[in-house]
Amino acid sequence: MDGKSLIVSSLLLGACFIAGMYTLAPTLEMTAKHLIESERLVTVKGLAERRVKADHVYIPIGYSVKSYSHSDGLQMIDAYRAQVLEHIKRYGIRDNDIGFSMPSMYTFSEGSNGTGRQVYSISAGVYVSTDNMEAAEKLKNSFYELMNAGIPLTDQSWDIRYTYNGLNDIK
Description:
Radius of gyration: 37 Å
Largest sheet: 4 strands, antiparallel
Strand content: 15-25%
Structural class: alpha+beta
Number of helices: 5
Order of helices and strands: HEHEEHHEH
């Protein structure tokens, strides 16, 4: 390649580079402005987070017994139910805020090969569903009193659920 064609090729390449930069410059400028502005703007798409105080609580109080007699087991469940109801009412919970869960019972045989005595495992419970948050908080903090009274609470008793019913008011 001779010197003259090298100069022409270099000039042609330079001209193409300048034309490309001239065409690309407005696009680069617009992109840079968009990046700078996007750091100052917040896009809201309808979701928000806000802390609110719960206005309703559901407190299950489950208990269970094991007995060698079906009738003895049911009598123990009834006695625990009466104790739990008395305890709940001491904390100012109204009757219409108290409900009862369905009792359940299953049987099994003691011993590794199933030849032992028949055992009845019976579970039942009482639940509180109330808007009286102050009384409910006091009741929740009293579960150890129930345990000290000999009521065999189940792990269901720790599944307390708080809800907020005023969501439509703050939308």
